[in-house]
Amino acid sequence: MKNPFFYILLSALFFSCLLPDEPEAESLTLISWNVQNLFDAVSDGFEYPEYDPSGSDWNEQKMRIKLENLKEVLLSLDGGLPDILLLQEVENRNILEILNEEYLDGYYSFSDSWKDSTSAIGCGVLSRIVPDQIHIHFPGEYRGRALRPLAEIHFSIASEELVVFNNHWKSRGGGQMATEEGRIMASELLCRRIRELREEGVKNLIVTGDLNGSCEDYRSGGSQCAQIPVEEIFDIPWDGSLVVSYDSADTWMESSKVILYSPWKDMDGEGSYFFQNRWMKLDHFLLDRGLLDDQGLEYFDSACVVLPVNSDDQGLPLVWESWREAGCSDHFPVFLSLGFHEKRDD
Fold first, then answer.
1. Which residues make Cβ contacts (< 8 Å) with residue 324, sequence separation at least 6?
2. 296 contacts 62 by C-beta, under 8 angstroms
3. Hey, where are the domains in the chain?
4. d(CA 228, CA 205)
5. Alpha-carbon distance 161 to 146, whole Å?
6. For 192-226, how does the pLDDT look when each residue is reduced to its tens digit (9 = 90+)?
7. ∠ CA 79-205-171 to the nearest 5 degrees?
8. Can you tell me the distance from the alpha carbon of 129 to that of 108, in angstroms, rounded to the nearest whole number?
9. How far apart are CA 310 and CA 202, in angstroms?
10. Does residue 25 register a pLDDT over 90?
11. Alpha-carbon distance 180 to 182, whole Å?
12. Which of 16, 27, 115, 171 has its CA 20 to 30 A from that of 217?
């Protein structure tokens, strides 16, 4: 099993190419999107069976149809492509480079992906801003299988440091409570790392990705969940759960627990994922208080991205169906924009 505190420091210059200019400092836009099993057309032995081109009907044509559909969604966004695109359920860096170079006209200067060496899918990033550094954290094994790693991505935005955690936590397959332990392992690692960064003076922190749950999963007096609503903060003993509030003022509470702000109530729509006739808020941007203090880099706006090109006539996600060679993803993307306030002299 990999050491859960194993870090990989990447040389950003090595992985970048001098293509587009970086965005203006006045604003920054981010999209997080679970793109539902985005595989290339090369067999490496670790794909899901239905996406292994050596033993299924998955092929380059299907791959390109899916990439074209993803492109159509991304190019339909108000304001154009985001500055930073954070993806979940991607096979490898190769498929990100194909998306960027052949479908997005090389818009992004930097691409990378990460996963456990034996996993089929992982997370990735395409960014106009070359990261200063990336650390990869492995939560460990759950029921004999490696949990997906967390990526800690450091950016310099004008004179500000921004740290973004890209996550894809354990799935809910088998039931929410039956699998919650796997998500708690990820949240415990994440909480430890956030505390360490705060002690180092980092103020601008974002947790994003498909967390396969929300604070609404917790029931008062019940078992631990990876996310807990802030209303329960004084009644729970656990420091390894993210405490989530829909009120940004709560992030300033004095507590040993990690309290983050969720802008989900600012977003249109009931959720990012629809399953068994109910909406679920699985995809998130969770913000630390440094992005909510009215100075420097600041939270500005957010949205759950529902467009005619990624939703059906009932307003549900337009699920990718390989057999039909149609669809996009079973998740809607979530969008975040940041802006700048003048810094105060404290």
1. none
2. no
3. 12-341
4. 19
5. 31
6. 999 999 999 999 999 999 999 999 999 877 899 99
7. 85
8. 8
9. 36
10. no
11. 5
12. 115
Could you give the dihedral angle defined by the CA atoms of residues 252, 254, 256 and 260, in that order, rounded to the nearest 10 degrees?
A: -20
Query: What does pTM read for this prediction?
Result: 0.92
Q: Is the pLDDT of residue 346 over 60?
A: no
Instruction: Map tokens 């299988």 to a residue.
Output: 145
Q: What's the gap between Cα 75 and its chain centre?
A: 19
* Longest Cα separation, the chain: 63
Q: Quickly name the fold that domain 12-341 has.
A: Deoxyribonuclease I; Chain A (3.60.10)
Angstrom distance (rounded) from CA 255 to CA 331: 33
- What is the share, in percent, of the chain residues with pLDDT greater than 90? 86
The Cα-based distances of 15 to 125, 126, 174 in angstroms read 12, 11, 38
Mean pLDDT within 19-29: 66
Which structure tokens are listed for 316? 């549900």
State the DSSP H helix or E strand holding residue 86, giving kind and residue range, or none if neither. strand 84-90
| Run of H or E including 182 | helix 176-199
Helix (H) or strand (E) holding 335: strand 334-341
**pLDDT (0 to 100) of residue 302:** 97
191/189 Cα distance (integer angstroms): 6
β-strands 84-90, 27-38 pairing: parallel
Q: Given its phi and psi angles, is residue 143 left (phi above 0), alpha (psi -120 to 50 degrees) or beta?
A: left
Classify residue 223 as exposed, middle or buried by CB count within 10 Å of its CB (0-12, 13-18, 19+): exposed
Nearest residue to 162 (alpha-carbon basis) of 171, 153, 170, 150: 153
Give yes or no for a contact between 288 and 206, defined as CB atoms under 8 angstroms apart.
yes
Half-sphere exposure of 228 (CA within 13 A, CB side): 27
